[in-house]
Design a protein that fits this description.
alpha/beta; Rossmann fold; eight-stranded mixed beta sheet; four-stranded mixed beta sheet; 9 helices; 26% strand
Length: 326
């Protein structure tokens, strides 16, 4: 456990090592369809770019989910009950969780889990200062992998309620999403806990594609930042000007895909390894799967949850689900 800033109860630092990033990049570039690991988008620069994306007119998920949370927070709080321990996966700027904390009855503790270390510390320190009555823990970790989370020191028996907003589950493939849900259900079941999760819904491509390829080019900069990060941290030599951002909808898998397209034949070096990238060849950087209400409820049930409630906005753009373990 790392030394915690004064405002936090504790800071647990499990940030992936640079070697993990290098190994993931080399493995991805070695595939016939080259890939780059989207979980490494979120260094400090990438997190700041994503915050800008969330404010774009084209990017409907954030404002739609925020409005839905504002409306349904009392219902969520009623299901969660008093004095719970709220655990947020992919906490980012910790904006959405504040809506739940304000609606809940005497929450005992809040644990934020995020892979972006500096962004995590800034957001949790600010939240702890705004809520001194709540025991706040920060955990820097890759939540897509098995993880043992801390119990609140002052209230170790507080009932856990996990919060996974932003449709981040959509970044996982079907098997990975089911494994994450099953692992989360197993973690929560011991404390008779619940899960609140946000999911983007299937819709027309005329809405989807602009959300991932905005007119200002912020998403393009976000996508290319993983190349800049590899250059900074791994000594790679990606030419950011040699790649173009592309977003497409894959109807077979009900997902938006983000790619970086090579504008010319080029060679890239990472960790002493050399990779040829042909003109027009793509590096697949992210998936964002889109769900139906019934399809997700089936997935959650197979993973060990009991669907308790589901809410969506008037335009059927986004959904929030409340899942129980007992």
């Amino acid at each position: 456990m790392a030394t915690a800033p004064e405002a936090l109860a504790a800071f647990h630092d499990y940030e992936p090592e640079p070697e993990d990033f290098e190994a993931a990049v080399i493995a991805g570039l070695s595939k016939p369809q080259k890939t780059l690991p989207c979980k490494f988008f979120y260094d400090e620069a990438g997190s700041a770019l994503f915050d800008r994306i969330c404010e774009l007119e084209e990017y409907y998920p954030t404002r739609t989910e925020l409005a839905l949370l504002e409306t349904r927070a009392p219902d969520i709080a009623a299901l969660a009950g008093p004095r719970c321990h709220l655990i947020e996966f992919g906490s980012g700027s910790s904006i959405k969780v504040r809506i739940l904390l304000d609606a809940m009855e005497s929450p005992e503790a809040y644990t934020a889990v995020d892979i972006s270390r500096e962004h995590l510390l800034k957001s949790t320190e600010a939240l702890a200062a705004a809520h001194p009555e709540i025991e706040v823990h920060a955990v820097c970790a890759d939540y897509s992998k098995p993880l043992e989370l801390p119990r609140p020191e002052r209230h170790p028996d507080a009932r856990p309620v996990a919060f996974f907003p932003g449709s981040s589950l959509g970044n996982f493939g079907a098997e990975q999403a089911t494994r994450f849900l099953r692992r989360t259900a197993d973690m929560l079941r011991e404390g008779r806990g619940d899960l609140v999760i946000g999911l983007d819904l299937q819709k027309h491509v005329s809405i989807l594609i602009p959300a991932y390829d905005d007119a200002e080019g912020v998403t393009a900069a976000f996508n290319k930042n993983i190349l800049a990060r590899a250059n900074r941290e791994l000594g790679a030599n990606f030419d950011l000007g040699g790649f173009t951002h592309r977003a497409i909808y894959n109807d077979e898998f009900s997902r938006v895909e983000m790619h970086l397209v090579s504008d010319r034949d080029q060679q890239v070096t990472v960790g002493g390894r050399h990779f040829r990238i042909a003109a027009g060849e793509t590096m697949h950087t992210e998936n964002s799967h889109k769900y139906t209400i019934d399809g997700f409820r089936r997935m959650a049930s197979e993973a060990g949850f009991i669907p308790a409630a589901a809410w969506c906005d008037a335009g059927n753009l986004f959904s929030i689900h409340y899942l129980k373990t007992v």
